[in-house]
Inverse folding.
């Protein structure tokens, strides 16, 4: 058998293993290695900390070795734009290096050269890819991302997330409709226009004018608390400037993003939560055309006619009120169904449902001798579902307020290791490439954090703390001996035995 054919068969096996792991069709037996004797107590040293870190590293790396080869095998068909005579590192090696930059929470290309190139992380790459020769330079990765198709990495991530969402395992963990949140956020900005596709603000004012990269992100919010990155729609000018010279904007990007989400998740299977920017007729019509349920934040200054109708109906429909107790907070819900809203030149009509929630609670003020102060706030949403006393709490508190999870997701991306706002490159295609590599890393780290063998450690120290411990240990001491032992993996015919008990990748169920 030729070397090419042998590598092709290995790639097929790796992809099959990855898909079976994600869908729950593979049974993985995890055998605990006999523990070493605890380190003796001594002044200035933590008892057993090194051994605990080795256990975490062992578990993290064994899960990583089950997922990463399949992901890398999907890049075997990508055309390498570099000169074959001048290539030292193959395309999968460079892509692996890029994913490890974000898996290990490395903050920049310079930090990658310092912390990865000069460390023992090369042992991981050598174990994952047989063609590994040496650790690439971060500039090699940047040049590769400039040359390849700027959408190829995003398309490979779409295939990964689509395979997971369509699996029986996903449906088992997340039955019913799929909760999706979408919102825009800025990546970074400059005082000069580094690319014609960059957006601008305060045009014409040399003191305030800024150019920035902006993206519309979407995430899947699962019942067990997992927040997985879904699709990214970049906002960019150039060909997308309309006839009036207006820039690309978040609402235009949502039309493109919604069409892409529909291809992956389908019609009628999504509940989407959005902020007040999307409380417009065209945006709600898009959701209705795809058969999606929605909960959209409604601000006081938006849709004044809808607010007037809602307040008028409240005087008539006094029974549409419900009191609820949510923890230490008191809630008063009021709603109105079937409000007619007309928009656009063609006078299109929508029937909307509006719900408001006044929430009150007591908050202690430590600066005033702990004296508690009563506080109150009001929320309002537009709903595609008809509201009643049975579903109002679920729609508002369990669904609509989950929109904040995407804000927490942005917090993680920007300030907890993924360097979302750092400029890894000024080339537009490379910006997209680095962004997609970060999504692969975010998906893997989230998936590993919710696996059953890691969840206890994550609860105790947090996923960010676990990643710092594991990768810090690998950089300084290399892989523990137990990681190099052969993992025992058994495949079973899941059609003949549908209830497979497996351990490593049994995800934490919903609370």
């Amino acid at each position: 058998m030729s070397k090419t054919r042998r590598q092709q068969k290995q790639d097929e096996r790796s992809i099959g293993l990855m898909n079976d792991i994600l869908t729950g069709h593979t049974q993985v037996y995890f055998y605990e290695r006999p523990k070493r004797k605890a380190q003796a107590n001594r002044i200035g040293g933590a008892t057993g900390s090194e051994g605990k870190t080795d256990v975490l590293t062992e578990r993290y790396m064994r899960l990583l070795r089950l997922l990463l080869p399949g992901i890398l095998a999907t890049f075997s068909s990508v055309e390498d734009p570099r000169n074959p005579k001048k290539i030292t590192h193959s395309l999968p090696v460079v892509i692996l290096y890029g994913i490890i930059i974000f898996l290990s929470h490395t903050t920049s290309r310079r930090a990658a050269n310092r912390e990865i190139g000069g460390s023992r992380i090369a042992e991981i790459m050598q174990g994952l890819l047989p063609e590994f020769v040496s650790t690439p330079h971060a500039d090699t990765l940047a040049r590769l991302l400039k040359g390849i198709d700027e959408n190829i990495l995003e398309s490979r991530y779409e295939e990964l997330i689509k395979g997971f969402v369509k699996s029986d395992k996903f449906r088992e963990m997340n039955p019913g409709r799929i909760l999706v949140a979408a919102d825009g956020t800025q990546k970074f900005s400059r005082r000069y226009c580094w690319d014609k596709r960059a957006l601008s603000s305060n045009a014409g004012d040399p003191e305030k004018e800024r150019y920035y990269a902006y993206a519309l992100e979407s995430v899947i919010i699962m019942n067990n608390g997992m927040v997985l990155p879904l699709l990214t729609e970049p906002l960019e000018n150039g060909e997308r400037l309309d006839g009036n010279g207006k820039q690309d904007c978040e609402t235009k990007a949502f039309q493109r993003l919604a069409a892409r989400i529909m291809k992956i998740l389908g019609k009628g299977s999504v509940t989407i939560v959005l902020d007040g920017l999307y409380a417009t007729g065209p945006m709600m019509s898009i959701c209705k055309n795809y058969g999606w349920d929605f909960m959209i934040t409604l601000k006081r200054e938006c849709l004044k006619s809808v607010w007037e109708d809602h307040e008028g109906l409240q005087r008539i429909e006094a029974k549409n009120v419900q009191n609820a107790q949510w923890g230490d907070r008191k809630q008063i819900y009021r709603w109105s169904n079937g409000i007619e809203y007309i928009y656009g030149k063609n006078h299109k009509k929508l029937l909307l449902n509006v719900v408001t929630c006044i929430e009150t609670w007591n908050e202690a003020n430590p600066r005033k001798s702990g004296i508690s102060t009563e506080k109150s706030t009001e929320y309002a949403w537009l709903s595609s579902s008809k509201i009643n006393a049975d579903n109002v709490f679920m729609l508002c508190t369990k669904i609509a307020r989950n929109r904040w999870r995407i804000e927490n997701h942005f917090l993680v991306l920007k300030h907890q290791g993924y360097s979302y706002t750092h400029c890894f490159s000024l080339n537009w295609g490379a910006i997209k490439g680095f962004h997609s590599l970060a999504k692969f890393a975010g998906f893997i780290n989230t998936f590993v954090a919710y696996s059953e063998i890691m969840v206890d450690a994550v609860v105790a120290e947090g996923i960010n703390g676990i990643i710092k411990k594991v990768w810090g240990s690998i950089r300084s001491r290399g892989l523990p001996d137990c990681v190099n032992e052969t993992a025992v993996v058994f495949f079973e015919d899941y059609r003949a035995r549908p209830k497979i008990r497996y351990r490593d990748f049994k995800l934490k169920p919903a609370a």
